[in-house]
Amino acid sequence: MTFQNTREFARELDSKDTLNHYQQEFIFPKVNDKRVIYFTGNSLGLQPKRTKAYIDEVMNDWAELAVEGHFYAEKPWWDYQERFAEPLSKIVGALPSEVTVMNTLTVNLHLLMVSFYQPTKTRYKIICEEKAFPSDQYMFQSQVNFHGYKPEDAIVEIKRREGEHNIRLEDVLAKIEEVGDELALVLIGGVNYYTGQVFDIKTITAAGQKAGAKVGWDLAHAAGNIKLELHDWNVDFAAWCSYKYMNSGPGNASGCFVHEKHHNSNLPRFAGWWGHNKERRFKMEPTFDPVHGADGWQISNLPVLSLAPYLASVEMFAEVGMDALIAKRDHITSYLEFILHEIDKEVESTFEIITPSNPEERASQLSVFLHGEGRALFDYLMKNGVITDWREPNVIRLAPVPLYCSYEDMYDFGQILKKGILAKKD
């Protein structure tokens, strides 16, 4: 398709968009009494309107039933998490028994590393990507310290080549082969938070396992955003947050994946009573008997008030389906890319998109290096109704989330961006 930088063309694309009506399902902040253009769903998704009803249901059950809500609520609390198994499994490409919800993201990654990072004297190294999200970096450092190793020796970062913004797949595979028999774990972000690069999960997983390592993935920026086939790709484990592309609310519950090949293993884990045999849980037995499947990694009574908005979200995803989301994601991201290039021609500044141009290596994010511009342009965008994200030294991240961003939003953003740059030059 040949794109055009006109409002009429953008409106025509919206009229043909089968997901366009989902914009009405979300609550948008306002700036200057006008609905914002929201580009930060990669940090915190917008609130779906249906969320309140799910929370109110739990609050009403709590008021009317108190403790009996565990068993007699409309959605009984004691097995509330089981409602996630089917819809979440479709979002991440898993068997229902391979997914669960609990805790928050870094907590879950730590807990999963109890099972999947079992260093020995000779096999103890972890491969991760350079400039991983800081929480992952801190996690790696604390884990290797806990096991008695030095981070500078045990943590191996895959570097970008000089002058390049993204990591080449061939360099990931070469590093795995180089570390070889010393490699205990590969744990990488499925989508790099800074550049928006999508990694080849299938190929990297196979390479890491061939080297004798376990392979896990931080899917914070991937779940609900890219096509995942965790079961078929033979991923050992994964975890993700729910508040970015899945719109469940700030700091909300995390999802976990544990491949079925590990369900009958004797992997170590930190145990708690919510992971105990469901049918015998209230017998208060002294010996831990884990639930079969990913639910057996749960520890504590679940925070049902947090799970309610997450359930609202995954049921919306079940309505839409990942294939439809990804089709619009690719198209609207390409249109945003086109708009940026068109505005670039009309101003003296230069926008360098550091996200891969190959659609197979990107998703709902374009990270843009603003050569010749600074923080003042970001501030202008924010004051004029474009909610975006600033990352040092000079990058804005734009996430045109397909559920609630429109093509006309992309056009309007381009016009506001242009005015912001030209205003500075007047």
UniProtKB/TrEMBL annotation:
Name by which UniProt lists this protein: Kynureninase
Matching HAMAP family: Kynureninase (MF_01970)
Binding site for pyridoxal 5'-phosphate: 105-106, 133-136, 218, 221, 243, 273, 301
Cofactor(s) in the UniProt record: pyridoxal 5'-phosphate
EC class: hydrolase
Pathways involved: Cofactor biosynthesis; NAD(+) biosynthesis; quinolinate from L-kynurenine: step 2/3; Amino-acid degradation; L-kynurenine degradation; L-alanine and anthranilate from L-kynurenine: step 1/1
EC number: 3.7.1.3
Annotated function: Catalyzes the cleavage of L-kynurenine (L-Kyn) and L-3-hydroxykynurenine (L-3OHKyn) into anthranilic acid (AA) and 3-hydroxyanthranilic acid (3-OHAA), respectively.
Known partners and oligomeric status: Homodimer.
UniProt cross-references to PANTHER family, sorted A to Z: KYNURENINASE (PTHR14084:SF0)
